[in-house]
Amino acid sequence: MPKAKGKSRRHKYSYNLNRKRLYRSARRRAAPRIACSHIRHAWDPHKSVAQNLAEMGLAEDPNKALPIPKKLLGMEVESDGQQPGKKIVRKPYVVNEMELEASLPEKKSNTLSRDLIDYVRYMIQNHGENYKEMARDEKNYYQDTPKQIKRKINVYKNFYPEEYKNFIASLKPEKMEVQ
User: Fold this and answer.
1) CA neighbor of 56 nearest in space, from 84, 28, 97, 85
2) Number of Cβ atoms within 10 Å of the Cβ of 124
3) Does the keyword Oxidoreductase feature in the UniProt annotation (predicted)?
C-alpha cells in the first residue's frame, strides 16, 4: 500500500503565526467552570456571564458592586444626582441557598494516622512526661528529638481531647498498682 502523499515531507515552522493568541481565543470560547453547585444549576448557557450573574443577584465585578468612595481616597466627588437603576433579580434562590450553606458550621475533618496515635499512646504509657526517655526508646524509629515527640503528643491532645483524657485516666490506676 503506498504512503499518503506529503506525509514524509519536512514541515516548516511558521514564524509569523501567533500561537498565544490562538490559544487564548480558544480558552475564551470555552464555558466557564463553575465550582458552586447552586450557580451551576441556575446557569443559562445561552446568556452571557454578566446576564447570568445579574439574574442571580451576584456581582460580576466586585469593584463596581461596592465602589470605594472618592472621599476616602482624599478627593472630592461631583455627583450628578443620578442613581443607577435597580437590577431585577430573577433567581434569588441561588443567593439564599449560598447564604444558608455558608452559615452552616464547618465540620472538623482533622484526623491523625493510626500509627501516630499508637506511637503517642505507647510513649505516654511507658514514659509518662519524660521526653528524653522517649527519644531514647527503641520504638522511636524516626529518631525524633524530645521536642518533636512533645509536639506530636500535643497534636494528639488537640485533635482528640476526650480520648486523651480517658487514656490518661485509665493509666492512673495502673500506676497505683505498681507502687
Assistant:
1) 97
2) 19
3) no
